[in-house]
Write a structure and sequence with these properties.
Number of strands: 11
Strand content: 35-45%
Mean pLDDT: 80
Radius of gyration: 15 Å
Largest sheet: 5 strands, mixed
Low-confidence stretches: 1-5, 20-24
Number of domains: 1
């Protein structure tokens, strides 16, 4: 029996249902996960966006697996990332493509704490069998210091056309 609590997209809910986990995986209260169909690009893999409130502490998504033979990291926050066109958020994004090795892909969501220590807040593990759930999608991860910044104000949830820069290719 799988159990889910927190705010997330249908994509994440489908992903979680496939886990058949008996434990609860809770999205942190200050995080919103949203997805939509990707326009263009490769039909396999997905585009991952990290969107952080402009003055928020630094956040990162660490990516292991997929097309990478090493860990890569997307970072955005008060010290890093690219300013959105509405000047409310900082963002960064990349395309994640699947490789042929059939290894799991891990997305670890981490945040900076006092004295530069990073702490893992949440993790998504994508198995080869679950890849089709993510194919040709855009996954937006919104994080703020204020729990209500993205949850209660839909206008703060920027999309691709509000991002002027920030694509990272590793």
């Amino acid at each position: 029996m799988s159990v889910y609590t927190g705010d997330a997209s249908l994509l994440y809910l489908q992903y979680y249902e496939k886990l058949h986990a008996s434990s609860v995986q809770k999205v942190p209260a200050n995080m919103v996960i949203d997805d939509r169909k990707r326009k263009g690009g490769s039909p396999t893999g997905f585009t991952l966006y990290l969107v952080v409130e402009k003055k928020s502490w630094d956040r990162a998504i660490r990516i292991n697996g997929a097309q990478y033979s090493y860990q890569v990291e997307l970072k955005a926050g008060d010290n890093t990332g690219f300013l959105s066109l509405d000047s409310k958020s900082k963002c960064i994004f990349t395309n994640i493509e699947w490789n042929a090795n059939n290894a799991n892909t891990t997305l670890s969501f981490v945040s900076a704490k006092t004295l530069g220590i990073w702490s893992e807040d949440f993790k998504i593990e994508i198995t080869p069998a679950q890849r089709k759930l993510f194919d040709n999608r855009e996954l937006y991860v919104y994080v703020s210091d204020n729990e209500k910044f993205y949850k209660d104000n839909i206008d703060n949830k920027i999309k691709r056309d509000q991002i002027s820069a920030g694509y990272i290719s590793f």
